[in-house]
Known about the structure:
Layout: E1 7-9, H1 18-33, E2 41-44, H2 46-55, H3 62-77, E3 80-81, E4 87-88, E5 90-95, E6 106-110, H4 114-124, H5 127-144, H6 150-164, H7 174-192, H8 200-214, H9 218-226, E7 238-243, E8 254-259, E9 271-276, H10 280-284, E10 291-292, H11 296-299, H12 301-318, E11 322-329, E12 332-340, H13 345-357, H14 363-368, E13 382-383, E14 393-394, E15 396-399, E16 402-408, H15 411-419, E17 424-428, H16 436-441, E18 444-447, H17 455-463, E19 467-469, E20 474-477, E21 482-485, E22 488-491, E23 495-499, E24 504-507, E25 512-513, H18 519-531, E26 535-539, H19 543-551, E27 557-561, H20 562-566, H21 572-580, H22 584-609, E28 613-617, H23 630-660, H24 662-685, H25 687-705, H26 717-722, H27 724-743, E29 749-754, H28 760-781, E30 788-793, H29 796-800, H30 802-808, E31 811-814, H31 816-824, H32 828-831, H33 836-841, H34 855-872, E32 877-880, H35 888-896, E33 901-905, H36 909-921
Parallel strand pairs: 3-4, 16-17, 17-18, 18-19, 26-27, 26-33, 27-28, 28-29, 29-30, 30-31, 31-32, 32-33
Antiparallel strand pairs: 1-2, 2-7, 5-6, 5-7, 8-9, 8-11, 9-10, 11-12, 13-25, 14-24, 15-19, 16-23, 20-21, 21-22, 23-24
The structure holds phosphoenolpyruvate and magnesium ion.
Amino acid sequence: MNSSKFIYAFEDGDGRNKMLLGGKGANLCEMTQIGLNVPPGFVVTTEACLGYLEKNQLPAGLMNDIRSHVTALEKKTGKVLGGGSNPLLVSVRSGSAMSMPGMMDTILNLGLNATSLEALIRQTGDERFAYDAYRRFIQLFGKIALGVADEHFDERMAAVKRKAGARLDLDLDAGHLKELAGEFLELVKRQSGKAFPQDPYEQLEIAVGAVFRSWMGKRAVDYRRQFRITPDMANGTAVSVCTMVFGNLGADSGTGVGFTRNPGTGENLMYGEYLVNAQGEDVVAGIRTPKPIAELEAEMPEIYRQLVELRGRLESHYHEVQDFEFTIEKGTLYCLQTRNGKMNARAMVRTSIEMFGEGLISKERALLRVEPSMLEQLLVPQLSPDFHGKSLAQGLPASPGAASGRIVFDADTAESRGLAGERVILVREETKPEDIHGFFQAQGILTSRGGKTSHAAVVARGMGKPCVSGCEQIVINDKARNAVIGQTTLHEGDVITIDGGNGHVYAGEVPTVEAKFSGEMVTLLAWADEVAQLKVMANADTPEDATRARQFGAVGIGLVRTERMFNSTDRLPIVQEMILAESQEERQAALDRLLPIQRADFKGIFKAMKGLPVTVRLLDPPMHEFLPSAAQLELEIAHLHQLNDSIKALKELPDTLKLLNPKLYQQYADGLTRLVGGLHTFEESHLEDDVIRRKEAILKKVRALQEVNPMLGHRGVRLGISYPEIYSMQIRAILEAAALCAREGAEAYPEIMVPQVATVEELKRIHSYVQRIHKVVELTHGINVRFKFGTMIEVVRACVRAGRMAETAEFFSFGTNDLTQATFSFSREDAENKFLPAYTETGILQDNPFEVLDIKGVGQLMKMAVAKGRKTRPELKVGICGEHGGNPVSIHFCHHIGITYVSCSGPRVPVARLAAAQAKLLEREYLDPD
Ligand code: PEP
Ligand code: MG
């Protein structure tokens, strides 16, 4: 296409060029070109938008081109913009290459003015319809193009309804709507300081500019940031100008939205909603609650038949579930829009399996079309099956999953309370696109109006958040900050639970249980495993976690953090004894008590993993993490001293009282004697002195262990070198656990991993402990114990020395949490809540490097380490066990540099399995961002 051409008629635009025409515009072209009944129109390109945003004015000549395309439209439709006997009205819609539902602006009924309004009345003979269209246009144009706030219009509307005694918009007659349109015109003039433009080309010019501007509007920018939509994915919005067709021309007209399959369950059945005698925005904004599409079969059988046909054509053309909008104008069906349907994870997985079965898509496509991180949604909590409480109300099950939280009545409050760490449920009559920031922070959404395709429902589903919509029993008063359901009044801050799977709303917090894998999910992940090259392991510290990880499909444990075992309440005192020991003997005595406990832990994990590899990391954190803080100890010691003083004072109490008030003393003499006796016994036990002494000893040790920067201090292998007996105990526990398993006929395959290694010599030292202990264990148990010995690579120097490291290490595991910290010199404890948000918001960094692997920096170190390591030891096993191991973008990179496995938390194992398959399928297209 010629890049200076800013406009394409629907007949001419390239339906594949979404970057230029936007998803919506490209589809309108494509739908027109495959013969669907699309009202005529044209698309103004995203390049024109970028030109506008750069200079803050429409590109030169654009208005002339628009005029000639409008002339062509007038020829095609026989209508005239802004006048004539057959007036042309158009919609002006936004649409970028990436779907951003409701995030940008759209104006309908453009072209209405005093002249065309009269013509429309004459032509349709329907004054009510014409004024209804006019007042809608003034409101939308006023709001979007001229910046007049919605609530001014809503107030006028409410006042007219009150005066007319009307409950619904539909109850207003032509006279009311005429009055309303007049008031709206006045309102616009008052608020914007200018008369409402009557020239349709002026309207068009302002509208196109406003839609372009909406690309940089707050909600669009927030949305792109949240969903990581970068300029190379979508740059600017296109504008589609399309002949208006009307669903509100009477009982043979209507409007609706459809999905070619059910987006909540994936069921192969047309799904959607419609309203008779209404315009599209009524369905999407949830102003009226629509009817299920199945009812259309009885109401308009011929239209329903055409819709079924349309559904088939859309799917066989796009090979994807479609979300389409349609309008019926006086018995004629028009398709106004189609796009790939946004579905929840369950529906995506099911449709992948079924569309493959129907021959509509290949297995590769079935794997590629599911966004891996969505799979976490399938593990959304459900209400506990043991819960049989009565619900307060029931609305529509709009997005599955159960959530509890405190009620908030507006998006700003949801955002601020959510960011402060509270769990909140956003409760509103209906939501609008400007509420998006509230969605991000809410656990779930509850609305009293709107259907399953209302804004709230669609956005919540996309985000995988529970949503109950159209819960009409709830009367929300957001000014008084309460919601009334029958006899119950709920206030802001009260806790409720919603179940987006069945639409129920409960007072208080209801216990939830985790979700289970569906059969389709199992199938999809089995396909993924067939394709993937990367293996997926899990990070797990207990036999229970290990069992769960296996259920999620992990083929081993890539990281057991042994310190988590040390921290449980039965072990901590022994660990503290070990740390406080004054001599090696004392330390050994504590370690001897820890040994059987650790051995039992490892045995449990090995058994749960049934012979799959289990990578156990030797102790990593600095010792002080197992001791209370100095400040806490100082406080406790001060309290104990105060207690001593109080005891002394209490012992003097009887004598003092005898002197001051003998009568009172007599009254309490018995009790006082008992009290003093008790205090003596307590003092003689020296209990508090013992406690003080012990606490002082701990405090001394805590002070001795204090480090300026503990994360770079005495931790990891450095501890193992200073206290060989600690690592020796752990190594023995691992190998003995393996021996015991083998003796019991259970396979076990431990991999011993050393953290924080920076020099080859460190690794060799620990290796010598392992070799020595391995021999002893084999001799004592009379059994061969197989194991691997390896190192974490989480220090920059280790990457540089990887070639030599691989002489001793049989495997590497990248600890990318520490490696990221070390590469950036960012303290991971401080970065995420101090400066990183500003870095990502202002574009210094595209992503938080602790979430998404920094391929350009950390990634290059990894690449180098893999190459060096494999040069020494070609069969070197290499894994990653930092948080990035479960992040799809990072997984693609790991595949690219030939890593053997990724290891991540249990619930992310399915995500990683799918991402690993996609990485393989897309390997040829992979571009190293370096
Ligand atoms: C790492 O550094 O990536 C790692 C897995 O270890 P930890 O997060 O326990 O320091
Ligand atoms: Mg680490």
